[in-house]
Write a structure and sequence with these properties.
CATH superfamily of the largest domain: Probable inorganic polyphosphate/atp-NAD kinase, domain 1
CATH class of the largest domain: Alpha Beta
Structural class: alpha+beta
Shape: elongated
């Protein structure tokens, strides 16, 4: 089995005191277990470790055997959006608001490292989707969002394998991965999907029922089916990937979504991680979001 500790690259959020403490702990735990240890530049400055500092764009040339992500799901999405390549395995450590992708908490980091040393782990590989629009290609881990730029509905047409399926007035639509089924898709009334199931989830955002030729509001299709979203409206609509704006499309321009040939990998310890995380989600939500 590959030695995950050969080259380790740590990425951390820098806006929380807890993250600084966990980053210091991670460095202390890993410095004697790896021959090469790097920390993304802004985080290295936070803990005054300039000798470990490397910009994130050097990940491609360094080719680490393990990425450690200290933060929440947003940190992983930020990391993925900037690397885009098929990453080495990621060990997510939850220091954030939401952590559906993080199996371990800071107090479990030492035990997790010990398990990796003993080869008591497995690699989970999750499928991604790719969007193509206006000569731009971009992989996404959660969802692509095609949405109105104003408070007025837009007229969108959605096709599966060139077969027109849905057209009507709506605020927009999502095309989500199973990983993203617990994100914006869930808020919009879409289904929760096991991440081992390689499907695409199309979810309409506030469709107006009297201006659509189909009652469908959401549909799940195999990832190998190409999905097209065409702007039929005279107004431009915005296109986002994992929350970051990609471009805008004019009338009759379209966004195409297909399965990416690349995957994202995570270090896991519990085969039932997804269901346990989903079952216990309420315990993990910060109190300020509860009522």
């Amino acid at each position: 089995m590959e030695d995950l500790f050969e080259k380790v690259f740590i990425v951390s959020r820098v806006d929380k005191q807890e993250a600084k403490q966990v980053l210091t702990l991670a460095i202390n735990l890993l410095k004697n277990k790896t021959t090469e240890l790097y920390v993304v530049s802004d985080a290295a400055g936070l803990v005054e470790k300039p000798e470990l500092s490397r910009p994130l764009n050097e990940v491609r040339s360094i080719k680490p055997s393990l990425l450690v992500s200290i933060g929440g799901d947003g940190t992983i999405l930020w990391l993925h959006n900037r690397i885009q390549e098929e990453t080495p395995p990621i060990l997510p450590v939850k220091v954030g608001t939401f952590g559906f992708l993080s199996e371990i908490t800071p107090d479990q980091l030492g035990r997790a490292i010990a398990k990796i040393e003993k080869n008591s782990f497995y690699i989970e590989r999750r499928a991604k989707l790719k969007l193509k629009v206006n000569k731009i290609e971009k992989d996404f881990l959660n969802e692509a969002t095609i949405i109105t730029k104003t408070c007025k509905c837009s007229n969108l047409q959605i096709s599966i394998e060139k077969e027109k399926l849905i057209q009507g007035l709506m605020d927009g639509c999502l095309v989500s991965t199973p990983t993203g089924s617990l994100a914006y898709n869930l808020s919009a009334g879409g289904p929760v999907v096991d991440p081992e199931t390689e499907v695409s989830i199309v979810t309409l955002l506030n469709p107006w029922p009297f201006a659509s030729f189909t009652p469908i509001k959401r549909i799940v299709v195999p990832m190998n089916k190409r999905i097209s979203v065409t702007n039929i409206d005279k107004k431009e609509v915005a296109v986002f990937a994992d929350g970051e704006k990609v471009t805008e499309i004019k009338k009759l321009e379209k966004v195409e979504v297909e399965k990416s040939p690349k995957k994202i990998s995570f270090v896991r310890f519990d085969k039932n991680f997804f269901y346990k995380r989903f079952r216990n989600w309420r315990k993990k939500i910060p109190k300020r979001f509860m009522f």
